[in-house]
UniProtKB/TrEMBL annotation:
<dbReference type="InterPro" id="IPR022896">
    <property type="entry name" value="TrioseP_Isoase_bac/euk"/>
</dbReference>
<comment type="function">
    <text>Involved in the gluconeogenesis. Catalyzes stereospecifically the conversion of dihydroxyacetone phosphate (DHAP) to D-glyceraldehyde-3-phosphate (G3P).</text>
</comment>
<dbReference type="GO" id="GO:0004807">
    <property type="term" value="F:triose-phosphate isomerase activity"/>
</dbReference>
<dbReference type="GO" id="GO:0046166">
    <property type="term" value="P:glyceraldehyde-3-phosphate biosynthetic process"/>
</dbReference>
<comment type="similarity">
    <text>Belongs to the triosephosphate isomerase family.</text>
</comment>
<feature type="active site" description="Electrophile">
    <location>
        <position position="91"/>
    </location>
</feature>
<dbReference type="GO" id="GO:0006094">
    <property type="term" value="P:gluconeogenesis"/>
</dbReference>
<feature type="binding site">
    <location>
        <position position="166"/>
    </location>
    <ligand>
        <name>substrate</name>
    </ligand>
</feature>
<dbReference type="GO" id="GO:0005829">
    <property type="term" value="C:cytosol"/>
</dbReference>
<feature type="binding site">
    <location>
        <begin position="7"/>
        <end position="9"/>
    </location>
    <ligand>
        <name>substrate</name>
    </ligand>
</feature>
<keyword id="KW-0324">Glycolysis</keyword>
<dbReference type="InterPro" id="IPR035990">
    <property type="entry name" value="TIM_sf"/>
</dbReference>
<keyword id="KW-0413">Isomerase</keyword>
<feature type="binding site">
    <location>
        <position position="196"/>
    </location>
    <ligand>
        <name>substrate</name>
    </ligand>
</feature>
<protein>
    <recommendedName>
        <fullName>Triosephosphate isomerase</fullName>
        <ecNumber>5.3.1.1</ecNumber>
    </recommendedName>
</protein>
<dbReference type="GO" id="GO:0019563">
    <property type="term" value="P:glycerol catabolic process"/>
</dbReference>
<dbReference type="InterPro" id="IPR013785">
    <property type="entry name" value="Aldolase_TIM"/>
</dbReference>
Amino acid sequence: MAIIASNFKTNHTRKSTALFVNEVNNYLKSNNIKNEVYVFPTATSLDLFDTVPTFSIGVQNAYATANGSFTGEIGTTQLDEFEIKTILIGHSERRHILGESQNKIAKKYEFYKELGYKIIYCIGEPLEVKNQGLIKTLEYIYEQFDGIDTNYENLILAYEPVWAIGTGVTATNEDIENIHNSIKEKIKKPLLYGGSVKVENVREICQIPNVDGALIGTASWKTEDFIQILENTKDL
Ligand SMILES: O=C[C@H](O)COP(=O)(O)O
């Protein structure tokens, strides 16, 4: 069974998110799809969504707090309102564009772990590291586990090479297999691949050994494409 996750990033409105959720829900229910499905809308589009949940809605980010004076952030008081119990942590855009340090990421991880959240924890190397070869790449990736309890029961990992994210350049099957094999040897947790996964290649990628599913940005934002992705992976 493939794990398929859609990260909306800074896309969709409240209204279009509700339509997306509704259509995906209808598709999953009427086709009896067993995939484990996650959708990460923007924080402004969170809702209880008046549908029987056949999949999980999570947040792309939240602060390690229940509430308080943290301008621009949300905490568990806001997440509880929408019964959110799933969070993405360590995404490369938060690391590299928004400047989240490993230390801050580890603190956030610990906070949400203590609360029992399902955590999709992202790791991945930039191009200059990839160009230094597999050993250096793995060293870089393992540093992203500093302060992270990889034995946590509600942990899903996502390997997302930074150079493949939003670029249209998917990692080769060989690259994916090498990295996934190495990570899996050390950490026995579900491991997704992310980085320019498309409708056309999602099935092939999910069939690579030690790939348990995909974390998808761009190719998942149109409802019909996301449904096609689910359709293409439903029997894996
Ligand atoms: O969270 C998703 C990843 O960053 C992949 O994004 P992408 O599918 O647009 O390359």
